[in-house]
Design a protein that fits this description.
The protein is of the alpha+beta class. It is built from 21 helices and 18 strands. Helix 5 runs antiparallel to helix 10, helix 13 packs across helix 17 and helix 15 runs parallel beside helix 16. It is globular and about 90 Å long.
Length: 624
């Protein structure tokens, strides 16, 4: 049968296209990209030997279903050679995170983990939660699995070691002990209730505890209590007794504390129905410091060794790996992964898949948690899909939405106006994709909700059109929910029409009669408003979405307002950042006092050089 006249011939794809590249590549290590007919990257891979790897794809048969589909969609390839295989692995993971190819394994939730910091820049060190780069002077302990795990540990440490958690500015301004001293959570060094030497001992004991040397700390406390009792210092002995009791409670409350594993990450994978859950437990100082579950995208059905290899390379991209990583499954190219992690850590890192003993029990515990977590997520996903299907039916959508964007504004009489956007889909709330918009136009000052919404939507979709005009990514929404009625919906429809966007459904959620929850009215462009039954699960779902958008917008507004309240003239001085600003305020008490200070007084502040002291003085005194 002849091809239809005038039809555009289909671009060749598949193993024959791949075979054509074999003449142009050699046996060097490197990275390859497989692209579809429109140039979208389908897959990024690495190879010890590029020619050998590409040859395996050029075969017409013998592939798994996933690889066969990928080969069938491939219309072209790109290659980059590297000097070493480890460089190829590093480049591969960088490209995966940048391009997010459909057939690659991708770690979607890659947040930083908090530490506990004992800051050493002050004579009486502060203990607090820290997240981010370890650039401040002090001793760091971590990572902890979550802020909650850090807060629980800090609470325990306060009971036992009485270290201060207040800021330096608060410390310097105290004239009498705060409530934490009254409830025996702080030694009150701010008002001289404890001397520097005794406080330093408390800091040392806390560090020993966080290093896992709890037996030594308990023995020292018991000896000190006996000594105090013998000297008839009964008040001091009672205080030491309370600390020993608190330490005993801490030890009994801790989770799995392995005796034979001082430092390790325990990583277990469970696969089911094409979905994956990776459970990570942090073991430090022979103590369990919590766990976190991850749900990487499996690249259309990758196997366990490939998933774990990708997970390790991406997970430790910005984190220091421990000396030992215990795994539930072997990984592909274990030697390359070990070398990559060792290079990042600056010391040897070992990967192990234990089969017996305490280490195997740790892995089995993590695997059980991974299995149970994935089961819960799949059940939640099924419920979420039913709600999305109900939403599509209620709002007459063509299909259940995969990405819902909900918008709301927050301000107080026009001040510090902020627009908020939250995102939801089959996986629930996608908090990493939430956005806030500081209102720049006069709409905020005028309390013009229409104008604020127009600014937010214009900025959002102008950027989206610039970054992804072909709509090839999943950043484009299927449904917009707007806080407001017919007026807001008309305004949004007008904005999108001006931008040439006419295929995104939008619904306004108005408070309805008496502004009561359950009486919401829904508005769509060109259609009469309608309501849902007050018992409808879809109505509850929309209320949750709206409430989350409201919470996010209010939080962004409060943060902006707090920043404005704490702003001072010091923010406008070149060379004075957050740290120096804190030091100046702690030393002088206020920005006004800084402005009255002489150059020599400014030089006396830690971190203020002679040149900067002169700049600060000139800033306040060279004005008119």
């Amino acid at each position: 049968m002849q091809a239809e006249q005038g039809a555009t011939p289909k671009a060749p794809s598949g193993h024959t296209v791949i075979q054509g590249y074999l003449k142009t590549i050699d046996s060097s290590p490197g990275v390859y990209r497989m692209l579809d007919p429109v140039g979208t990257v389908l897959y990024v891979g690495k190879a010890r030997n590029l020619k050998a790897r590409v040859s395996s794809y050029a075969r017409p048969s013998g592939h798994s279903g996933r690889i066969a589909r990928m080969i069938g969609e491939t219309a072209s390839m790109m290659f980059l050679t590297t000097r070493t295989e480890t460089e190829a692995l590093l480049l591969e993971q960088n490209l995966i995170k940048q391009l997010k190819p459909r057939y690659n394994v991708l770690l979607r939730d890659d947040k930083s983990f908090p530490d506990i910091l004992i800051a050493k820049h002050h004579p009486f060190p502060q203990i607090r939660k820290h997240r981010g780069k370890r650039s401040e002077k002090g001793t760091y302990f971590g990572p902890f699995a979550s802020a909650g795990a850090v807060n629980r540990t800090l609470n325990q440490l306060q009971k036992v070691f009485l270290l201060r958690t207040c800021t330096d500015a608060v410390f310097e301004s105290r004239t009498r002990p705060c409530l934490l001293y009254q409830i025996k959570r702080c030694a009150a060094p701010c008002v001289g209730k404890v001397g520097r030497d005794d406080y330093t001992t408390l800091v040392g004991d806390a560090e020993l505890f966080l290093q896992g040397k709890t037996t030594r700390v308990q023995a020292d406390l018991a000896a000190a209590m006996a000594e105090a009792s013998a000297a008839m210092e009964f008040e001091r002995a009672a205080a030491l007794r309370d600390r020993i009791r608190a330490l005993t409670q801490v030890q009994s409350a801790q989770g799995i504390n392995p005796r034979g594993v001082a430092e390790a990450d325990v990583i277990a994978l469970h696969l089911e129905g094409g979905q994956a859950c990776v459970q990570v437990f942090f073991i430090r100082a022979n103590q369990s410091w919590g766990n976190r579950d991850f749900y990487p995208r499996t690249g259309a059905g990758a196997e366990a060794p490939e998933i774990l290899e990708a997970f390790l390379a991406q997970f430790y991209d910005d984190k220091d790996p421990p000396r030992l990583i215990l795994l539930s499954h072997p990984v592909e190219n274990a030697d390359l992964v070990t070398q990559l992690l060792s290079d990042r850590a600056g010391r040897k890192v070992e990967l192990a898949v234990p089969r017996r003993g305490e280490k195997a029990e740790l892995v089995e515990n993590a695997a059980r948690n991974a299995r149970e977590s994935l089961a819960r997520k799949m059940a939640e996903g099924a419920s979420q899909n039913r709600l999305l299907a109900g939403l599509a039916e209620a709002f007459s959508l063509d299909a259940p939405p995969k990405r819902i964007e909900v918008y709301d504004n927050s301000h107080i009489q026009g001040s510090n106006a902020v627009g908020g956007m939250i995102v939801a889909g089959p996986d629930g709330f996608l908090k990493s994709q939430y956005r806030k918009f500081n209102i720049r136009s006069g709409a905020g000052a005028n309390s013009d909700d229409f104008g604020m919404m127009k600014e937010v939507l214009t900025r959002r979709f102008e950027r989206l059109l610039k970054e992804d005009p072909d709509r090839s990514s999943d950043a484009w929404p299927d449904l917009l929910l707007i806080d407001g009625g017919a007026g807001q919906v008309s305004a949004v429809a007008e904005i999108l029409a001006e931008l040439g966007i006419d295929d995104i459904a939008m619904v306004g959620v108005a408070k309805g009669v008496d502004r009561d929850a359950g009486k919401e009215e829904f508005h769509r462009p060109g259609q009469p408003p309608f309501a849902l039954p007050h018992t409808s699960p879809v109505l509850y779902f929309v209320q949750r979405l709206r409430d989350e958008a409201h919470r996010w917008a209010i939080g962004a507004h409060r943060a902006r307002r707090a920043k404005a309240v704490s702003a001072t003239q010091l923010d406008d001085i070149p060379g004075v950042g957050a740290t120096r600003k804190r030091a100046l305020l702690a030393h002088f008490g206020s920005a006004k006092a800084v402005g009255r200070a002489a150059v020599d007084d400014l030089k006396a502040v830690d971190g203020i050089s002679d040149t900067l002291a002169q700049s600060i003085y000139d800033f306040f005194h060279a004005r008119g």
